[in-house]
Amino acid sequence: QLFLEKYGYFSEPGAGTHSPAEFTEALRDFQRVTHLPLSGVLDAPTLHQMALPRCGTDDGDSRAAGARRAPPARRRRRTAQHGGRWYKRHLTYRVVNWPSYLPQHEVRLAVRAAFELWSNVSSLRFWEAQHGPADIRLTFFHGDHNDGLNNAFDGPGGALAHAFFPRRGEAHFDSAERWSLHSGKGRNLFIVVAHEVGHTLGLQHSPVKSALMSPYYKKLSKDFVLSWDDILAIQNLYGKPSKGSAIQLPGKVFTHFQDWNTDFYSRDRQQRSLSTYYCHSFFDAITADGDHNLYIFKGSHYWVVSASGNASDPRPLQPRWPGLPAGIDACAWSQLSGKFYFFKGGRCWRYAGSKLEAGFPRKCSALGLPRHPDTALYFQQLRRLVLFKGPKYFVVGEEPLGVEPYYPRSLRDWAGLPPATAGALTHRDGSVYFFRDDQYWKFDQAKLQVVATGKWATQLAWMGCWDANSEQGLF
Ligand SMILES: [Zn+2]
Ligand SMILES: [Zn+2]
Question: Where do the annotations place Ca(2+) 4 binding (predicted)?
């Protein structure tokens, strides 16, 4: 009875006051929603279903949708209670805390991919706020955490997480679960975040078994993460993606990340769209060398785009840069020394050709360089490297490696530049281009200000995305 109460199967809440008839009716409702035989009694399949790990948000409306006999008054009450949506399209989110055994960078990547699922198929756009206020906050809690006894977490299994409908912007996760970023053991954080984010956007539980918004936990599989039921639901609230073209592979983004290393090359059918996969998604870092070749980094691979705009197939970071880890934060090629610099976490790598220089990787944070820099750039005017991190930038000398005096300084020196860019390069037209998500900012070195902005995949031919193909929506 407590279970049915918690998940919204009684029309009048209040523990211990339900007649046997109400109890039977509530059980039948639950069995209808979960596609079980409508026995109306607590039989073995029903008890088994109740014990499965699931979302702690109640089934109120999906239940009303399934129960055609539900009186209209009750359905309206449910809808009024839950409904709601955001009245803006650009939302910020913040991961307030996370399990200490998961690396921060990977958690942020998984959360970003989860939000990307929804922005790929709707007009919504999301930005991560690493500090301060945000529209949607993701928080891990133990047990009772002050939003009602009904919402107290129950340890491993049972309710894994819950979230609130707009515009409260809160999703809570049970700290007692064993969270994981991979398929296999543990609860996959990406899947659960993607589901709870759906609630924070206004989606209710779906009675469609294959839907991400179905209340029961699903393992990460190679199938699409979003079903058409999820896509229609989000488009009902927020409309289609503004770029007009429907994206063909909703939900594949994260699976790509996963399969990247193992069976990537065996997948002929996907090869073509993957060869320019960077055109359709975020990348980790970008730079250009002295011959104006672009290097675009994502995960454990990189692409080279020649000066004529032809993109290579993705190549593994090894053996081009032996010892370089996947998922770098930033990269810059120095025109002064002709060397590649890579940054990840508090460390940095320097290569002359394919040779890692002696003494590297170094603990660059000990030299005053920022940890997890957003962007690295060789800046010709100063003949120095520049590292960008949040609202600040650092000017860095190469020999000896270290931050120049009087830095960091405020990003305001770079008029018009937003924080948290993914990468930057000096183009052969003499301008510096900064990238973040699907946007670019063109920075004039003489005027020291941003002079143009737009979408890089569709507006900058030299990014190599123009003949990427028309099967997938470009970023
Ligand atoms: Zn849910
Ligand atoms: Zn909570």
Answer: 284, 329
Which of the ligands is closest to the CA of residue 58? Answer: 1
For the stretch 94-120, pLDDT in tens is 999 999 999 998 899 899 989 988 988
- Binding-site annotation, residues for Ca(2+): 135, 154-155, 174, 177, 284, 286, 329, 376
5 among known catalytic residues? no
Q: Look at residue 434 in the predicted model and tell me its pLDDT.
A: 97
Where is pLDDT greater, at 232 or 400?
400
- For residue 46, report the distance from its CA to the centre of ligand 2, in Å: 26
**Residues 6 or more apart from 194 whose CB is under 8 A from it?**
114, 117, 118, 212, 225
CATH at residue 114: 3.40.390.10
Q: Is the pLDDT of residue 359 over 90?
A: yes
Please tell me the predicted confidence (pLDDT) of residue 224.
61
Residue by residue, DSSP assigns 405-440 as TT--EEGGGSBTPPSS--EEEE-TTS-EEEEETTEE
CB 468 within 8 A of CB 461: no
pLDDT score recorded for residue 19: 86
Residue 162 CA, ligand 2 centroid: distance in Å: 6
Whether residues 96 and 219 share a domain: the answer is yes
SS (H, E, C) 14-38: CCCCCCHHHHHHHHHHHHHHCCCCC
Give the rounded percent of residues in the chain with a pLDDT score beyond 90: 45
Q: Could you tell me if 170 and 187 are in contact, meaning their C-beta atoms sit under 8 angstroms apart?
A: no
Annotated binding site: 55, 135, 145, 147, 154-155, 162, 172, 174, 177, 195, 199, 205, 213, 284, 286, 329, 376
Q: How far is the CA of 306 from the centre of ligand 1 (A)?
A: 46
224 CB neighbour count, 10 Å cutoff: 17
Same domain, 301 and 412: yes
Same domain? For 343 and 377 the reply is yes
Distance 7 CA to ligand 2 centre (A): 14
Which ligand has the minimum distance to the alpha carbon of residue 230? Answer: 1
Which residue range(s) make up the domain with 407? 277-463
The CATH number of the domain where 343 resides is what?
2.110.10.10
ipTM of the complex: 0.97
Is residue 225 domain-shared with residue 339, that is, in the same domain? no
254 vs 468: CA distance, rounded Å: 20
> Residues at the annotated binding site for Zn(2+)?
55, 145, 147, 162, 172, 195, 199, 205, 213
455 with 317, same domain? Answer: yes
Whether the pLDDT of residue 222 is over 70: the answer is no
Instruction: Considering every ligand atom shown, identify the ligand nearest to the alpha carbon of residue 200 and give its number.
Output: 1
pLDDT digits (tens, 9 = 90+) for 144-183: 999 888 899 999 989 999 999 998 999 999 999 999 988 7
Catalytic site residue from 5, 25, 116, 196: 196
